[in-house]
Design a protein that fits this description.
With 510 residues, the protein is mainly α. The chain has helices spanning 6-26, 33-40, 45-55, 63-74, 77-81, 84-96, 107-122, 127-132, 134-163, 179-199, 202-206, 209-218, 292-305, 339-343, 351-355, 391-395, 406-409, 425-429, 435-439, 468-472, and strands at residues 223-227, 247-248, 253-254, 274-278, 361-363, 376-378, 412-419, 445-450, 453-458, 481-491. The longest helix is centred in the N-terminal third of the chain and has 30 residues, at 134-163.
């Protein structure tokens, strides 16, 4: 009994380790975000596969190959050992403590749903894949729900300490979210809880594109859990603990494509009728003992990876009007290269949202049209893109935002500045200002004399679209200066260097 429990213990240790990495990554504990992305995202089949399609073959983008290979060997060990969304569902199942039962496979629905997701991605829309892909769904729940709650508790505790006269700790600013994004994320979270309450981990086999895909591979896995019918007494103990609902006690069968390899059933059977070992098959084998069908499946699988995706058409709608100013295009993060490329690779995991120090990167609802639900954009009413920062490009797990060196980022024009003089308080109210010019890092916004004051003018050629000017512009309700997103990022001219003042020797030492 103890020997059969080793696999379960290994799975729990692995799951806890990956969960710890996930917490460090999404809750931004310490300075481990970049390392966390490289380690954790490498093992995520969905995001790793997208990064492979984006950047091509490379060590950082081929983690999905290991996941596929492990699935072919041992079954869906990814779902219980590496997937953070699997752990969330396990927590729900543990809290509810309900007796589980066999669930029909619903093969027609789940395979049709997988085809619909593939077709939508091929058509240029990431909405379905991003909504149900487990890593991205986990990220949205962590950033939009869990982190704000934890920060609120933390800040409340700091307020209590300050009330007691202790000022040794600082509060952490909360990231303001779009109410629609917050509501939809909460609705999704509640929906997952309800699904787990009634059907345990049905999501993994019915709605998860990664789970359904790995299920197809696990049909041919070399090792799997089996029921020895001669020993089985039909007590149903294994069926009542199966989280995937794949053990059919009546017919003494286990669906290998739906089994998530949690190994909970192995030590639950009182007569040790369940074993984990080499799959038996009556299929014709090749010379090395490998089933011919499995060999053909492997060849088909890895050949298809190189031919599956092609160029995607842009499917991104225009942004909604912002007050009087109508912005035609949203602003995508530096390194994304433009709207078309960004929207067809972003899954809305919100890692960039979490990493952004100025909180300018925020989840959107319809900034990219109906197909871009949850995909982030730069909202200059909340912040601006820090001139000396490229964190978002270092944490993106799919390659939607490619790593960009700081020097290159400083000349990447993600948007362009526009000046509306009829809204500017200098030109309309004769009120001294200049905040836009003061905060512009490239001096694309500069001041010129105007009726005894200094009014702003712009040089769009050296503007990088950071949005600092729009963020600090005090005019309400209409901004006097704003940034229009570039559909394709451009390269700005390098700003002129400031002339150094010549020191005049007057004999005075100061």
């Amino acid at each position: 009994m103890k020997d059969r429990n080793i696999l379960k213990r290994i799975r729990i240790i692995l799951s806890l380790f990956m969960s710890l990495l996930f917490i460090v990554l999404f809750l931004d504990i310490g300075s481990f975000s970049s390392l966390g992305v490289k380690v954790l995202a490498w093992f995520q089949a969905g995001t790793s596969f997208l990064k492979f399609l984006t950047l091509g073959i490379g060590f950082g983008s081929c983690g999905f190959i290991l996941v596929f290979f492990l699935t072919f060997l041992f079954g869906r060990v990814y779902c219980s050992g590496f997937c953070p969304f699997g752990l969330l569902q396990d927590l729900f199942v543990f809290l509810f403590k309900r007796k589980l039962k066999y669930i029909k496979p619903y093969n027609g629905f789940r395979y049709l749903f997988l085809v619909i997701i593939i077709v939508s991605v091929l058509s240029g829309s990431m909405i379905l894949f991003g909504l149900f892909e487990p890593f991205s769904a986990s990220g949205r729940i962590s950033v939009n729900l869990v982190k704000p709650v934890l920060l609120s508790v933390h800040n409340s505790f700091i307020s209590f300490l300050e009330y007691r006269g202790i000022y040794d700790f600082d509060k952490i600013s909360l990231h303001l979210l779009d109410p629609g994004v917050l509501f939809l994320t909460f609705l999704f979270f509640i929906g997952i809880g309800i699904l787990c309450f009634f059907f345990s981990r049905l999501y993994c086999n019915l709605l998860c594109p990664v789970g359904i895909s790995l299920g197809l591979i696990s049909r041919y896995s070399l090792f799997r859990i089996k029921i020895e019918k001669e020993r089985c007494t039909g007590c149903g103990a294994c069926e009542k603990i199966c989280k995937a609902g794949c053990i059919d006690n009546r017919n003494r069968k286990i669906d290998p494509d739906r089994c998530v390899a949690c190994f909970n059933c192995l030590d639950r059977c009182p007569v040790a009728a369940l074993t984990y070992g080499r799959a038996s098959s009556g299929l014709k084998t090749a010379g090395n003992g490998l089933d011919a069908s499995r060999r053909g499946f492997l060849i088909f699988l890895f050949s298809s990876l190189l031919l599956l995706f092609k160029s995607f058409p842009l499917w991104a709608g225009q942004a909604l009007p912002f007050l009087k100013i109508r912005k035609k295009y949203p602003v995508t993060p530096p390194g994304s290269q433009g709207i078309s490329r960004f929207t067809r690779h972003c899954t809305g995991c919100h890692l960039c949202v979490n990493a952004c120090p100025t909180r300018v990167i925020t989840p959107s609802l319809f900034s990219y049209g109906t197909s871009g639900l949850f995909q982030p954009h730069l909202d200059y009413s909340r912040g601006f893109c820090e001139y000396e920062c490229n964190l978002c490009s270092r944490v993106c797990p799919t390659g939607a935002i490619q790593p960009i060196p700081l020097e290159k980022k400083k000349q990447t024009q993600i948007g362009n500045v526009n000046l509306v003089k009829q809204n500017c308080i200098v030109y309309t109210s004769r009120t001294e200002c200049g905040a836009c010019s003061e905060h512009c890092p490239t001096k694309a916004v500069f001041l010129v004399p105007y009726k005894g004051l200094f009014g702003p003018e712009i040089n769009p050629q050296i503007c990088i679209g950071c949005g600092a000017c729009e963020n600090v512009c005090p005019t309400l309700p209409y901004k006097a200066i704003y940034v229009e997103g570039n559909p394709v990022h451009r390269r700005s001219l390098k700003p002129a260097e400031k002339k150094k003042r010549t020191k005049i020797n007057t004999g005075f030492p100061f």
